[in-house]
Amino acid sequence: MTWARRRLYSVRKGLEGMKMTTQPKEGPGTGGGQEVTHRARRLCCSIAAAAALLLACSGAGVAGASGSTPRGLVILQGTLGALPGNQPTLITTAKRFKLAGQSAYILRTLQDKRLLNQQLQLIGMVGPDGDFVVQKLFAVHNGKLYRIQYYCSVCNITYVQPGHCYCCGRETKLQEVPVSSAH
């Protein structure tokens, strides 16, 4: 158990035993004030600090991570590779990550041979088995991000995964569309 989680656990236990009411106390020296004490204020500040610390450290356990997003998702950037059996991997400067897709179309896109040895930026999190579960992916060219999609020029239809066009049956073409700065 990490220090931040132990601290959050002790803060929760402290809250369970604390009584906070807005009724005036009876008796001498109370001055009719509320029962919210200095201890309660300190405890609330500790909760806020522990929550902020957990949020900040959520992506810190991944070697080679280039950043993290507000929801605790990790951003990795590296070269797409493959292990035997068509298992996609991302090769970063620090580590080689086995990749899994959050959905089937992401996994099929990661297994596309046309993307091998390309620079990608992946957003996701480390799964329980140690694989990096990809939720979003982008191609990277000259420091700029590109959305990956597939296009049938005959039918003018775009797809999110590689394969054949559902209309005419021809193989779809890989397209990389620049991500606008507004998104």
List the helices and strands and how they pair.
Elements: H1 3-17, H2 38-57, E1 67-68, E2 74-83, E3 87-91, E4 96-101, H3 104-110, E5 119-126, E6 132-141, E7 144-152, E8 157-159, E9 173-178
Parallel strand pairs: 4-6
Antiparallel strand pairs: 1-2, 2-3, 2-5, 3-4, 5-6, 6-7, 7-8, 7-9
Helix pairs in contact: 1-2
CATH fold label of the largest domain: OB fold (Dihydrolipoamide Acetyltransferase, E2P)
Head-to-tail CA distance between termini = 37 Å
Q: Give the biggest beta sheet.
A: 5 strands, mixed, barrel
Number of strands: 9
| Level-2 CATH architecture of the largest domain | Beta Barrel
Helix content: 10-25%
Describe the structure.
The protein is α+β, with helices and mostly antiparallel strands and about 180 residues long. It has two domains: about 5-55, no CATH class; about 60-183, Beta Barrel (OB fold (Dihydrolipoamide Acetyltransferase, E2P)). The protein contains three helices and nine strands, in the order H-H-E-E-E-E-H-E-E-E-E-E. It has a five-stranded mixed beta barrel.
Overview in brief:
Helix content is 23%, strand content 32%. By secondary structure, it is α+β, with helices and mostly antiparallel strands.
Keywords:
OB fold (Dihydrolipoamide Acetyltransferase, E2P); 183 residues; disordered N terminus; 32% strand; 9 strands; five-stranded mixed beta barrel
